[in-house]
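Quick start: read one record
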Amino acid sequence: MAEPFTIYKLSRYILSAVSKEAIITDIGSVKAYVHRTTGAMLTSRGRCFIGSHPMAGAETQGIENAYADLIKGATVALTNPHGAPEAKVQQLAAFWEALGTSTYVMDPVNHDRTVARISHCPHILAALCARGATLGQEPMEDLQRLAASGFRDTTRVCSGGANMWADILWENDVAVRAALHDCVNDLHHLIDLLESQDKEGVRQWLIAAKNARETVRQQSS
């Protein structure tokens, strides 16, 4: 089985054909890693690399599942730790904005910490919900008959490609582990509330969750 192209390998492959005036970018979900590897290599060879991460996508993969407005209305994070000229950053931003997106310049480490909490960790928790459905002794027929929109919507994103997501979690492991430790601690807190029969505490926990969702989603709504 042929080893797939990584961003780094593809960049080395195209390097000789890329003008020093060109802007090279990517659409990877992790930015610090790509700058340590691909960005550092391209910069050392006199090329301009600025990272991009369109915050859009679906659980389906392949060109057959593409559609024209996939990224319309999305935010694209731009990362520039190698110090590309501001004019180049603005050129890349104009490219993305011409496709119907908005752009947001970030430090790559801060980007990775942020997406660990609003993208990577939610994917893991969706996978955990899917796995958890089959970890008990309930008959599969019962699970299948009763699984409705709540299960479908909560677990949808974990249908994404396992190979791609394994790479994402490996490349962003420090930030992902920090986010997961916080989630585990919060789950232990909920378990403690249930074990102590603290119904009001559970209610407040759920209210805090609802408020957190509405606050985080406020800017994009």
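The chain has a mean pLDDT of 93.
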